[in-house]
Amino acid sequence: DQQVKQNSPSLSVQEGRISILNCDYTNSMFDYFLWYKKYPAEGPTFLISISSIKDKNEDGRFTVFLNKSAKHLSLHIVPSQPGDSAVYFCAASINSGYALNFGKGTSLLVTP
Amino acid sequence: DTAVSQTPKYLVTQMGNDKSIKCEQNLGHDTMYWYKQDSKKFLKIMFSYNNKELIINETVPNRFSPKSPDKAHLNLHINSLELGDSAVYFCASSQDAASGRVEQFFGPGTRLTVL
After folding, report:
1. Could you please report the per-residue DSSP string of chain B?
2. Which residue from B41, B88, B87, B58 is spatially nearest to A6, judged by alpha carbons?
3. Over 90: is that where the pLDDT of A2 sits?
4. Of A24, B33, B57, B113, which sits 20 to 30 A from A100 (CA to CA)?
5. Beta carbons of B90 and B104 less than 8 angstroms apart
6. How far apart are alpha carbons B50 and B54 in whole angstroms?
């Protein structure tokens, strides 16, 4: 049973605009949420995380928002750049040092 | 410097063979993991080791056996390979739970193809 869901398999955005990637989860025990970026033939690269006690975390062009009551989080990339084109995975964990539960990923294409 | 490395990157083999995938991390982490990404691109945990001890063993066939000779290495041995084992296998590592750091660092993956 998939506990982390990314319902949009793909997203296309123009360079300079905002990219918004969405993620939903079902397990209320999750305490940490992460976003990973993945290029073809490479491993996932950690981008940003947020704990359940916060509703926002920002790192440069990347901001993650968490809505616990809706069991929903989103990743905002502003401004989007062509180098951001990759597959983005949402992941969740019960605690640090525990397995990550991944969504199926959203393929982002940023066009010039 | 490569943080998490895996060998080989590609592995093509026949059904019924036994093969191993090696993983090494130079980050000083205490916890290591194996994930499997299947044909539907779904990344799923297989095993987790903390200080050479198994702490997670998801529903994985007994043909898969992880081996951790030391904290920096977690190898995956697969016996009697089947067609359904074809996938990309990712090794990862993280600091332990006491650190409060949740992010895991992934290797480049090993694409296993069983013919």
Report:
1. --SEEEE-SEEEE-TT--EEEEEEE-S--SEEEEEEE-TT--EEEEEEEETTEEEEE-S--TTEEEEEEETTEEEEEE-S--GGG-EEEEEEEE--GGG-----EE---EEEEE-
2. B41
3. no
4. B113
5. no
6. 6
Q: Which amino acid is at A10?
A: S
The HSE-up count of residue B58 (CA atoms within 13 Å, CB side) is 14
- Contact of A23 with A72, CB cutoff 8 Å: yes
- What is the average per-residue pLDDT within B33-59? 86
Residue A104 has pLDDT above 80, yes or no: yes
Residues of A with CB under 8 A from a CB of B: 2, 32, 34, 36, 41-46, 49, 51, 87, 89, 93, 95-102, 104-105
Residues B85-98: pLDDT tens digits?
Answer: 999 999 999 987 77
Nearest CA in chain A to B107: A43
- So what's the pLDDT on residue B54? 81
Q: Which tens digits make up the pLDDT trace of A33-44?
A: 999 999 999 999
Q: Check B50 against A32: CB less than 8 A apart.
A: no
Among B40, B45, B102, select the one facing A32 at the smallest CB separation. B102
DSSP per-residue letters across A27-88: -TT--EEEEEEE-TTS--EEEEEEETT-SEEEETTEEEEEETTTTEEEEEESS--GGG-EEE
pLDDT tier at A67, thresholds 50, 70, 90: very high
